[in-house]
Amino acid sequence: MQRVLEVTSVDLSLVKTKPPQIHIVTHGTVPTSGWKHPRLSPWFYIRPPDDGIQDFDFVADAPTGIVLPMITTIVAEATIPRDPEDYWGPAKALRGVRIHARGNTKEASFNAAEDLAQAISLFRGDDDPIPWLIVTATAADCDLTGKVLRVYHTGDVLETGYRTDRGNIELDPTTDRVVRVWCG
């Protein structure tokens, strides 16, 4: 496991659940082909940091064997099942995240109280929330219960590995409306 070469973007959002969850999507680059299992590795603190920002290392498993020497895009995401308002303890809110790579560091921040009103919510129609069982054209049934969710915009570069524990939600890049929900 090594840090990736560079972090190119960090998206931080809230998933509307009770309590709300924090969702992080990070894009970066690696120097060759063949990198696997990109992930965000959290830093652990003895006491909460003064700036209220959670640090992560953006890491992946380095390739073995023959590789192509080319800059390749890689994506990692994490969902933190913790209320951002009480992240560091009662009434101690998370102010953002900082992602570290070999060559740089990027931050994304939010005010949890303000952003909670604009949290990601999944709706089929009027005020009818999508139930846990979703039927789509590509998957007869996609049960999102207990799955890691990957939320992305149409056209984003995605990891191609199939994961039975993952639900995918595709958003329109201009309107942020749900285009498709699928598992895998």
UniProtKB/TrEMBL annotation:
Protein name: Uncharacterized protein
